[in-house]
Amino acid sequence: MINLGVLVSGKGTNLQSLLDAIEAGRLDARVAVVVSNNPKAFALDRARSRKIPVEVIPNTAFPSREEYDRNIAGILRDHAVDLVILAGFMKIITAELINAFPMRIMNIHPALLPAFPGLNVQKKALEYGARFSGATVHFVDEGIDTGPIIIQAVVPVYEEDTVETLSSRILAEEHRIYPEAVQLFSEERLKVAGRKVIIKDHRKPDGKMENPEARGAAGG
Ligand code: GRF
């Protein structure tokens, strides 16, 4: 059983997916604390309704990003956090926090990294004309969305997609793979070797995907 510290800024649907996986017995962890930079984040209500300790630290609470992060690291340590989960935390974290939890911070990103790092990436994938996008869970290093990749899930992009329809298709995959990645960590099956994450006893996916499907394929 590991202690999670979850950092949020918004709706908290990824926090919810972790809580659901814990309740369903699919994730051997407990959420020790939820930290938000946004006092109005709905994620805080999700935590409070389960009596999970919350800490709200507005962006303006400290004069520098480093001091902000030093404070967060202190809170996480006070709650004996083993793994830090960025779940829609809309703030770039600094070396202060990264070095306090080396390869023990995970993030989820709504694209197939290294394609489309940064913000508004569902829109960018659509505008680029990508035929597939997806979600990536990765460890956090000092770059923006550059850390070692743990799990990726792929979704097709349809010509009629809007940012909303693509985002919700990706979000459904986020909710599936984030708890899986955390469970792998909890089982001590993740080893970071340079840029790569080696996963002990993992199952290889089979099959290929193409979009559009080849003529003659079922339903095509
Ligand atoms: C998700 O799309 C996540 O990938 C991104 O921000 C969104 C957070 O959603 N980093 P939620 O707050 O977990 O609902």
Task: Give your account of this protein's structure.
It is a single chain. The chain is an alpha/beta fold. It has six helices and nine strands; from the N terminus they run βαβαβαβαβαββαββ. The chain has helices at 13-23, 42-48, 65-78, 95-100, 121-128, 163-186; strands spanning 2-8, 29-36, 54-56, 83-86, 105-109, 132-139, 149-156, 190-193, 196-199. The chain has a seven-stranded mixed beta sheet with strand order 3-2-1-4-5-6-7, with helices on both faces. Strands 8-9 form a two-stranded antiparallel ribbon. α1 (13-23) crosses α6 (163-186). The longest helix has 24 residues, at 163-186. The protein is globular. The N and C termini lie far apart (46 Å). The model has no long low-confidence stretch (mean pLDDT 96). Residues 10-14, 43, 87-88, 108-110, 171, 174 line the site of 5-O-phosphono-beta-D-ribofuranosylamine. 5-O-phosphono-beta-D-ribofuranosylamine binds at residues 10-14, 43, 87-88, 108-110, 171, 174.
Descriptors:
single chain; 6 helices; 9 strands; globular; alpha/beta; 23% strand; binds 5-O-phosphono-beta-D-ribofuranosylamine; 220 residues; two-stranded antiparallel sheet
Kindly summarize this structure in a few lines:
The protein is of the alpha/beta class. 32% of the residues lie in helices and 23% in strands.
Query: How do the strands of the widest beta sheet line up side by side?
Result: 3-2-1-4-5-6-7
Strand content: 15-25%
Give the helix tally: 6
The whole-angstrom Rg is 18 Å
Run of helices and strands: EHEHEHEHEHEEHEE
Judged by helices, strands and strand pairing, the structural class is alpha/beta
Mean pLDDT: 96
Helical content stands at: 25-40%
Catalogue the unreliable spans. Answer: none
Give the CA-based shape. Answer: globular
The main sheet comes to: 7 strands, mixed
Query: Count the strands?
Result: 9
Bound molecules: 5-O-phosphono-beta-D-ribofuranosylamine
